[in-house]
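Practice problem. Given the sequence and the SMILES for flavin-adenine dinucleotide, write out the predicted structure.
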Amino acid sequence: MSGLGRETMNNIREQIEFDVLFVGGGPASLAGAIHLMKLAKSRGLDLEVALIEKGANIGAHELSGAVLNPIALKELIPNYREEGCPVERDVRGDEFYFLTGTRHHEVPFVPKYMHNEGFHIISLSKFVSWLGRIAEGLGVNVFPGFAGKEVLYGEDDRTVIGVRTGDKGVGKDNTSKANFEAGIDILAKVTLFGEGPRGSLLQAISNKLHIFEGKMPQVFETGIKEVIQLPETNYFSDSRGNDIHTFGYPLGLNTHGGGFIYEMKENRVSLGLVVGLSYQDPLLDLYEEFIRFKRHPFINELIKGGRVIEQGARTIITGGYYTMPKLAVDGGLFVGGSASMLNAPALKGIHTSMKSGMLAAEAIVESFNKGGDFTQESLGYYHQLFENSWLKKEIYMGRNFTQAVSKKGLIKFLHVGAQYLTGGRGIFDKMPLDDDSKSLNPLKRVDSYRTARYEKQAYDGTLFVDKLTGVYLSKTQHREDQPCHLIVHDPDLCMNECFETYGCPCTRFCPGNVYELEVDDNTHEKRLKLNPSNCLHCKTCDIKDPYGNITWTCPEGGDGPGYTIA
Ligand SMILES: Cc1cc2nc3c(=O)[nH]c(=O)nc-3n(C[C@H](O)[C@H](O)[C@H](O)COP(=O)(O)OP(=O)(O)OC[C@H]3O[C@@H](n4cnc5c(N)ncnc54)[C@H](O)[C@@H]3O)c2cc1C
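Answer key:
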């Protein structure tokens, strides 16, 4: 590592150089960094490696189900139990239910890709925090509280040479405050982007280097999740399964998604609802759907007497194999959710992300061994490794899955059944999305839906908490006096057009109450009010805004949720 100064307009911007830089402290980057350090050591390579994470600590922004398939973990850390891997519970049985408005029906067979017996139920936040400590122990320079704000390119304007982190101490009015700290230019021979779904740097690279060219449109889902403390005697004390999945109510068959409840230790459960973002009803409110799910008599019975102790939300990228970007560019690699590395039928992306990071690490070591060739061609060895791995087999098997389940009505079951019998090929290989979901904006006009969709909810503040209490329980914090990290490009569009056409859907798709419609008591004038400090960093707004009018950017490093058990 070496440090030197460079003058900018009004301050000195520090530069630090590493051999390899990982952006994002999720399972993809951390598994990659650990594998890289171990491989480098075994090959006698002395590498300086850094990892930056926008959360205040490793794990603070990590939220998942989560059932972990330990296949990649076993390769990475064979004795992970002895090394203190924080496993909540082992899965002892799976249960799969179809929910109607008031009833539940157990599906007589659990699809093979949802057989989780023997897998581990974890808190992703705790798990990555543990991986972070292992990475540090192996010599990785881990920098939490640093958001990658800009991709740095070489003189040819296409070779990635590192990342600039965000400035700190900038006021709302864009002026430097007394505590101003300029962002740092972290330079590296290779930069790995592991930002998870809808990475802001990935978007910037995509616009410049067209890494998604020719690929099918990406598919996103948003999950809202809680950890609930149950009384000592509860459903799981003597239940068959501790890994429960549901479909049907409250979403019905035209919006894809479903629910999950996993048993954790100390009488806690992880409960969540995942909703496909290709939905068309502008009045659909993700948070209300989540609460309806919890109020279903069957779910309510499982969690009765409980108290919500953590809540949060995050998007998932489920498009699969045909939506994967180019995996390498000159000086850069894409891993994990950023690169669509998820087994969609199993709704599992942790082990696939970890394996992608590990394969990328192997390609990097090869590039160093080749005397330091970090061109796209050389780093593209990662793609070859991917094609010959179990990871490719898994992701390829689910290549048409999300496209099939996002079809409306019963036809989805025909497609899923056909895929099940043909190893993923199904009736159409390269299954297209519904015409409506292909466009940026699948929402229909609000007047075609203007019905009261939700009854007024009674929140008890314990087991049923409102959005703002949920934000409080996510421990989200942002420094108030900073430029708004949510860019609404044309605010007039919101009231002039979006309100009339879609009824301001941002007030409903954001699970954090960031977007609020205010009406002036006297003039009756409407205005969109933003509460960026509530932002859960789920990035749903960046994806679901019907006009593409909202861009999510990283706020000051260290801000955002403070998950500890999600
Ligand atoms: C509700 C829900 C349930 C799920 N259930 C399961 C499950 O049961 N099993 C399973 O295997 N998978 C599950 N998944 C999917 C799984 O969580 C993801 O596939 C996986 O976490 C992706 O790993 P990643 O490392 O690519 O990205 P992430 O886990 O998203 O990590 C990315 C990290 O990068 C940081 N970051 C992003 N941008 C920047 C930047 N510019 N600068 C610095 N840091 C940055 C983020 O703060 C974050 O910490 C679920 C996901 C959700 C949302």
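Check your answer against the key. DSSP finds 17 helices and 25 strands in the chain.
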